[in-house]
Design a protein that fits this description.
Creatine Amidinohydrolase; 10 helices; elongated; alpha+beta; three-stranded antiparallel beta sheet; six-stranded mixed beta sheet; 22% strand; Creatine Amidinohydrolase, Chain A, domain 1
Amino acid sequence: MSLSKRLENVQRLLSSKDMDFLLIDDPDSLFYLTNLQLSAGLMLITQKNANLFVDGRYIATARENSPFQVDLLSQEALSETICTYGSNLSKKIGFNSSKTSYCSYLKFNDFIERIKQQRKVVDFKLVAIENPLKPFRLIKDATEIQKMKKAANLTWKAFEHICSFLNEGVKETEVAVEFEVFCRKNGADSMAFSPIIAFGENTAYPHHKSSKRALKANDAVLIDIGIVLDHYCSDMTRMIFVGKPDPEIEKYYSVVKKAHQKALSLCKPGVKLGDLDRVAREVMAEEKMEELFLHSLGHGIGIEVHEYPRIKWDGDDKDLILKPGMVFTIEPGLYKEKVGGARYEDMILITQDGYENFYSSI
C-alpha cells in the first residue's frame, strides 16, 4: 500500500469522526505513515493536508525522503500550521490516547492554551482517539507480508543454528547471545525482544529472562525468539528435549501442540477472533490443564512485535472478525511453577480462503 493511500485512510477516519486534525507522535505510527525511522517527531494531519515536523537531527533526511511537507519542529511552526489550516474549521485536534504519554498530553494541552491566548481563538480542543491507526495497520499489504516472511525465514535459520549449541553445560545466556550474533551477522536490524532461552524448571515462566543456568541431561528447552528485519518483526517458540524428557512436560507439549492445531483449524475469514482461544482452551480443559494456561492465545504482529489485536476469548478484541491480510501469532502454553512448561508458537496470515503459516514450509 502506498503512503498516499495510508494517508487517505487516516483522512477518511478524520472525516467520519468530524475531526479537523490528528496529531501523531509515536515512532511506530510515524514510520507507518512516512517510511522514516524517527526517534522523535510529530505529524499533523487534516482532512486535506499533512505536515511532518522533525528536529534538526532528521530535517535533511526527512526533506529528501518524505512525501509530505516537512518543517523544523518548533511551537511557532506548529502553531502557524494549525492556525492556517484551521481558520475555517471547528478546530478539534485528535491525539492517539493509546500512545501519547500523559506528559506529552499535558504539553499538547499547554500548547493549545497558548495558541488560544495568542491568536485570540477559543474553540481549539484536544480530543482523545484510542489507537486511530489500528484498523489500517491490522491488515497487512503485500510488501509488509513479504518483509515478515523474510524475518521469519531468518529467525528459523537462527533457530537451527543455536540448536547445535544445546550441549550439556552451555548457559541460557550463551545460547541467547549466539542467536543475536547470528541474526545480526545475517541482516537483522535488531531483536524484536530479548531472546527467551529457558532450561528445565525455567520453562515454567512465560517471559523468563535468560540466565546463567546451565543445560543438564534430560532438560526441556524452551526457545522463544524474534527479530526485526527491514522494520518488521518475527516471533516463534519451539521446545527441544535434551535426552529423555520429563513425562509431565512431554505431556504438556503434546497438549499444547494439539491446542495449537485446533486453533489453526478455525483460521479463516469470517471467524471471530475469540473463538480461536476458546477452542484451544477446550483442548486443555479436556486434559484438566486449562488453569495452567497463563496468557492469551496470541497477538497481532507487524511493525511492533505485540500489536492489535489480542487473542483471548473474553478480551476486548474477542468479536473481531478474521479478514485476509491479518497476521498474528498462535502460541498456546502450559506452565507449572517449579516443574516446567511448554509453548508452541507460529505466525499466521489469514488468506482469502484460510491461512498461511510462515513457519510451515521451513
